[in-house]
Amino acid sequence: MSEPRWLTDDEQRVWRSYQAAASMLSAHLEGQLQHDAGMPPSYYEVLVALSEADGRRMRMSELASARDSSRSRLSHAVSRLEAKGWVRRESCPTDKRGSWAVLTDAGFAALAEAAPGHVEAVREALFDQLTPEQVRQLGEIADAVVGGMRPRCRAAREAADAAEEAVELAALRKSG
Predict the structure, then answer these.
(1) Where are the alpha helices (DSSP H) in the chain?
(2) How far, in Å, are 42, 121, 134 from residue 141 at the CA level?
(3) Does 59 lie in the same domain as 111?
(4) Is pTM, for the whole model, over 0.85?
């Protein structure tokens, strides 16, 4: 077994600072959305993705991939959004197993109401603290981290989805 690649003192300081910043930012924005709009960030992100999609609709599998979410987690979120009347599901005519998530007018209105406060919270908490050069650098850093992590996250999500399908298939065989 090889020796761990321990963090240098500087890397340790940066790592801890990054963790604190990410945690504080996430908690602040989650609290703002919950308090002002009555929704968690994951629901807001689904509404945003659908609002930006052609015809305000996406296949569920495509939406899960766009949100870097498992199909199970996305399905749960969409069920909650359906209960609020913000999203509806439609069957896919070309694929019996597939379905579409469609942003309703009520969902678009909820997003339009939530967006100004959320954008202002993001601006105040993050961008107002940075110079234009730091914003550019942060973008480059975030892109590099996402680029390195996306294949690992995609593989883990695909494995979780495959395991979920196997359980569903086994349940179908058992019941039928």
Answers:
(1) 9-37, 41-52, 60-66, 71-83, 105-125, 132-175
(2) 23, 22, 10
(3) yes
(4) no
Amino acid at 58: M
Does residue 150 sit in the same domain as residue 108?
A: no
Does the pLDDT of residue 121 top 70, yes or no?
yes
Number of Cβ within a 10 Å radius of residue 75 = 18
Average pLDDT for residues 28-51, to the nearest whole number?
Answer: 96
Reference 102, options 71, 72, 81; nearest CA is 81
Number of neighbours of residue 104 by Cβ within 10 angstroms: 17
Per the CB < 8 A criterion, the answer to whether 33 and 113 are in contact is no
Per the structure, the complete domain to which residue 170 belongs is given by 131-176
Q: How far is CA 15 from the centre of its chain?
A: 23
Which residue, among 30, 49, 18, has the nearest Cα to 118 in the 3D structure?
30
* 80: nearest Cα among 113, 31, 39, 108: 39
